[in-house]
Amino acid sequence: MFCESDLSIKLQYSQPADLLRAQEEFLGSGAQAAASVGRRPDKRRGEQAAGDKQPGTQTYQRDVVTIPDQIPTLTPAGPKKTRFRTDRIHFEDEGPEEQLDRHDTHVTAVLSRIIERDPSAVPVSLPAFTSAAFPKVFHRSEVEDGGPGPAPGGRKSIFAQTIAAQRAREGGVSPRSSTKHGRPFPRPGLQGPNLTPVATMETEQPLSGHRDSAVSESSRLVSGQGLSQQGSTVEALRIHRENQSRLEGLSQTEILEEQQRLLAQLDPHLVDFVRSRKTQDALQEDGGAAGDIGTKADSREPEQDPLQMEMEDDGTEPQPPITEKELPVRPQKEWLHMDKLEPEKLEWLRDLPPPRRRGTTRAMQARFHFTGALIPPTEDLPTHLGLHHHGEEPELAGYSLQELFHLSRSQVIQQRSLALTTLARIISKAQRGDFNSCLKGSVVASLLDAGLLFLLRFSLDDAVEGVVAAAALALRALLVSPGDEETLDSTFSWFLGMEAFPLLPVVVEEEDENDEGLDEALKETPAEKEERKTDHAVASEDVVKGLLRMKLLPRLRYILEVLRPAPQVVLDILDVLTRIARHSSSSARQVLDCPRLLETVMSEFLPCSWTPSTSPAPESLHGLPVAAAMKLLRVLATSGRQACARLLHRMGARERVSRLLALEPQDMLLEPGEALRIGTEALRLWAVAASYGQACDLYIELYPLLVKRLQCVPGVRAPGHALRPLELQRSLALLTLLTNVTHTAGCHQELQSALDSSQDADCPPPPPVEWGHVTGLQPSILGWLKECVRALEEPDQRESALTLLPAQLLYLGAFYSQLNTQLCFRPVECLQELEALTSDVLLPLLAHPESCSVLCDAQSYRPGPETIPSLPHRGHSGGQSLADLSSALPLLTALCHLIHTVASIHRGVAHKFSLLLLSDSLLEYLRVCCQAMPALSHSSTWLLRHEHHLLYLLLKLAYRLVPINTEVAKHASLFHEVAVKMVSWLLPGGEHLAHDLLATVVFNQDFLPEGRCGGPEAAELSELQLHESSSPAPHPLGPLLRDACAQLPSLRGCYLSHLAHLEPLVLRSRNSYLGRTCDVRSRLLPEARGATLPSDWPFLPLVSLYERVGAGGEAEPLPVPVAESATRCLQWLLVLESWREESLAAVPPAAKLARLFCLFLCSSDLFLERAVQRLGWGLLRLLTRPSQLRALDLGVPLPGLASFQDLYVALLVQFEAVSFGDPLFGCVLLIPLQRRFAATMKLAVLGEHVGLLRYLGVSLRQLPVPLDLYTSPPEDSVPVLRLYFRSLVTGALRQAWCPVLYMVALVHLNAFIFSQDSAPQEVEAARQSLLRRSYYLTDEVLKSHLLLLKEPQLESELGFVTYDHLPPIRARRLEVVMGAHKGSEGGKE
């Protein structure tokens, strides 16, 4: 392909003028046309033939061809349609010309201009004369064999080959040469005088002089056919040689560039067709072996695009046609129609060719092994593996996803089962990230888009047990992430580790068109909208919800209860049910409500008595305890308090827990590992129940057994034993159970007192366990803790000790936090115990290892490549996880929790823990946290929550140490900045932490040392240096900051009052953090759609005031408390912008400006208050610092704001109504009018709201923004310039009224009218028009300002200086414009 502009191929009569002239001569001669337009009758409509037309029938007019001056641009054609389809489409109002244009699909409509053909050069073949009455019947046996025929690529039947051989003998040509290129040559006696091989393009000779011999002697495109008889061959050869000479003058790079440009314009199907014709011609040339043919074809083919080129190895050559000796069965002569060998039809009998090595960067179809592994295209696998039984690319081993889907619908049971099993293995490997570097895109997403969910659901209804087992395996691979479950199990014993976020996908609710304009009462509820959706729509948004809607739970119950499948299928189904229960509380409720589902699980997989299996691998799990079933109950119990009580009392979970824990693992008659796992899950279920204050009577019953196991725990197996990890998990579950029981026992006294003093029936009863029931556990656990601390020095025991220490510390923290509220509390003995605990345990543990941080490194726990929006997981790919056994996060959190409890009871030992806050690693960690901006996802939220616990406990420790320790007080600013940023990081469920930080740390004077150590004075000094060239600020920052620091308690009360709507969530979160187990409602956290407080929470009082008035409502005067609230908000913003600027880094400067607009929109007179004025000027100067102005971008979307333009228009309306020309309001109004921002806001001011210019009296010295940002670069918007000029001429914009915009208008208009830069014609016309109108102004002052303006100068009286007379350049410009104008007027006259 060649570029038309550089390498155009010339043809005779190729000019449009020649074609039109020939057309006119033909029409003028009145000769009969060679062809006529007819209409084929439609038999279905009963139309008559063209020859039987009735009178009055429409007569088609002669077509006239019109050709434009230029050939239209070639564009890729659309998708091909069936040719019969277009023939059937007719429009009643469509004329013959439109029909011909629409049905014209000739190649000339794409490649070249229309050229008339000369039919005189076409040979006419006359029938041969014979003496017989009828032609002689042809018998194939009478014609001698012409050889084995062409290569398989020729696609010629034996009959066609025989006919070609017969005609070749009649014409005196050999059979092989006569069939060359797919059609025989005409006989010599029937050829025209000029019909030569060159003219018919049937031969191809290499050009000896051209590079690589890649250009032939004759062209493949320019054949000469259709030209006049005389000189057609010479003309075609001349055009071809001219094209070759132009090609030789170009480099290979230029040719490839032109080729790429043409390929991008042409239809890809057309290009493939031309290349296939060329390849067929090359393969059909006469030659030796098939390998030589392939080599010659490759040598003649021009170089292709590197992205589309496929190269074969030198060793792989096309195989020769199959011979009779290679057949497994020799054909016999007696066999009917089998005496002739047909190589093409026997190709399937030979072995598959080896895979070809393709040197291409194009994407190839992925093929998979039955094990789920990806098979490389070059790997040669034996055929007995069964990986070649597919239609496409039979030489490649493996099955594509499409072929596996097709195989899963087979009628053969084994094929369906094999396809589903293979899909399950592929999904498992994709979830682990095995295909990250091999495949583009997501395998799971592709499968879901193809309908995998419906395929698996249908397969579960199959009557064959093997297919059901394969479908269950695939469903488990799709839904369940083994890494998620292992991580959640390992973090169960962390601080509040049993709490987790639901795995709900993020669904963006779109506004329904049917609900527009309706009242809230008439709109559809979310449940009604969900009911209207189809199963496919629901599944595309939420996979689990789609499965529940497809009645998955009843089917799984039927499989477990009736089919009684194999053990692996049972485990797969239990894992799927566990994943559904983790989805949300509503999904867990559906599992509980499914008829006979949990009853089947209880009776079959958690029996109270069972017969031991005789083999290590039982054939059936029915009738045996299964750990996965107990885990399902535990996950269901975390969904809510009522669900847990229902499991314990109605479904018999309490009896199962008691029965399984009463036995030692070796007495369960189960496999040792399974016995430990089921015991661990039973303890975890009991721990969840104890976190609600339930099943505590079971503690009293099993107390001797628990004490016995607690005393035997230190003597566990050796570190290298296979069961050692399981025993450690069992010990952690036991400690977590005792921790929750201790919290419940601590609430007994309070609940009993409330019950005795109140006659309210709603008061909950106290739990059966009392504080005296748990006091005997503390000595055993404390002794165990000390042994673990000593074990840290032993390398073989260090890992086990680090695993057990967090749970032991958490238990002691729970014990001492509840101890000081009991009546039996003895202060002296308790303080002595705490001092001993500090010296023996806490201080040695302060030397902690380094910790990995999700907060500081978002890549350490990023979502995997197979993360699907409709199927969220907590899995991660690569990096160190905070849930690893080697992570220091659980130990640090538990240690800080115990230190916080000890320091709150014994304040005299608090200073001993300063070593932790003064460590260099911790301080560096906190500095990095200040710069962090964590991203929220299902992969990070649950671990970020644990890291928030650590930061909160560190800040609480700093809260106790900063007032009493001078070394710690030096870092108070760092602790304060972390606290301010952490308030906007806390996730749902952490409302108590946010409330506590606001109440203790954020507004604490001790954490703002700048307010006492010269901070206000430093602010004044920096402000003076910043404005040394201008007049001093009317309201200095120093006194404002000093007053704000004095009002910190009032600021705290203001913000806590505005967060009063979060009180229910704060109380719910506090119950969980303080261990008030009887008030905890659920261990399933709220959905984590974002942080609890927005990142711009310091602006919350202003936004609340604006929302109270309403975005479009009328602003009224506000009461005094509301004005005080706005004042407190401005004071806090002033403090943060002055000393904690990084804490508001997550808020864009445009968002800060938009929030500041609320100060003027929420009331008609609030901004006129004196305190608000002083604070507003100070905050405005901070928001207009150079760094803030550089980052200001009004074009980006802002959180919580639909349109900045609409908000600004509302501000303009408010300014016109109530501003009274206030300078502060005017300065805020002028900020968005800077030159670099969009012209829409300038058009709004100068157009619809031009009247406000009368009151916008901000002087140049009052403007906090440099004037250069308004005047540079020159304005290029002609509508804005016209409005500037109109405002000046009409008097709406005057220097006395609006000095800033008057100056801006003069500068831009002066630069525009005297500009001589090249510009479009309409812009130049506007320049000249404005210059003439300026020259003819009657206002001499405005005229001199426009024409004689020199530059802005703030020191001058006018704010700018002017020339005494026009500079020569401006004078010449004015003379040229005015002279041209007079000349045009004279010409008109």
TrEMBL record:
<keyword id="KW-0804">Transcription</keyword>
<dbReference type="InterPro" id="IPR013930">
    <property type="entry name" value="RPAP1_N"/>
</dbReference>
<keyword id="KW-0539">Nucleus</keyword>
<dbReference type="Pfam" id="PF08620">
    <property type="entry name" value="RPAP1_C"/>
</dbReference>
<protein>
    <recommendedName>
        <fullName>RNA polymerase II-associated protein 1</fullName>
    </recommendedName>
</protein>
<feature type="region of interest" description="Disordered">
    <location>
        <begin position="164"/>
        <end position="233"/>
    </location>
</feature>
<dbReference type="InterPro" id="IPR013929">
    <property type="entry name" value="RPAP1_C"/>
</dbReference>
<dbReference type="GO" id="GO:0006366">
    <property type="term" value="P:transcription by RNA polymerase II"/>
</dbReference>
<dbReference type="Pfam" id="PF08621">
    <property type="entry name" value="RPAP1_N"/>
</dbReference>
<dbReference type="InterPro" id="IPR039913">
    <property type="entry name" value="RPAP1/Rba50"/>
</dbReference>
<feature type="region of interest" description="Disordered">
    <location>
        <begin position="30"/>
        <end position="62"/>
    </location>
</feature>
<dbReference type="InterPro" id="IPR057989">
    <property type="entry name" value="TPR_RPAP1/MINIYO-like"/>
</dbReference>
<comment type="similarity">
    <text>Belongs to the RPAP1 family.</text>
</comment>
<feature type="domain" description="RPAP1 C-terminal">
    <location>
        <begin position="365"/>
        <end position="430"/>
    </location>
</feature>
<dbReference type="InterPro" id="IPR016024">
    <property type="entry name" value="ARM-type_fold"/>
</dbReference>
<dbReference type="Pfam" id="PF25766">
    <property type="entry name" value="TPR_RPAP1"/>
</dbReference>
<feature type="compositionally biased region" description="Polar residues">
    <location>
        <begin position="215"/>
        <end position="233"/>
    </location>
</feature>
<feature type="domain" description="RPAP1/MINIYO-like TPR repeats">
    <location>
        <begin position="1098"/>
        <end position="1320"/>
    </location>
</feature>
<feature type="domain" description="RPAP1 N-terminal">
    <location>
        <begin position="238"/>
        <end position="281"/>
    </location>
</feature>
<feature type="region of interest" description="Disordered">
    <location>
        <begin position="279"/>
        <end position="324"/>
    </location>
</feature>
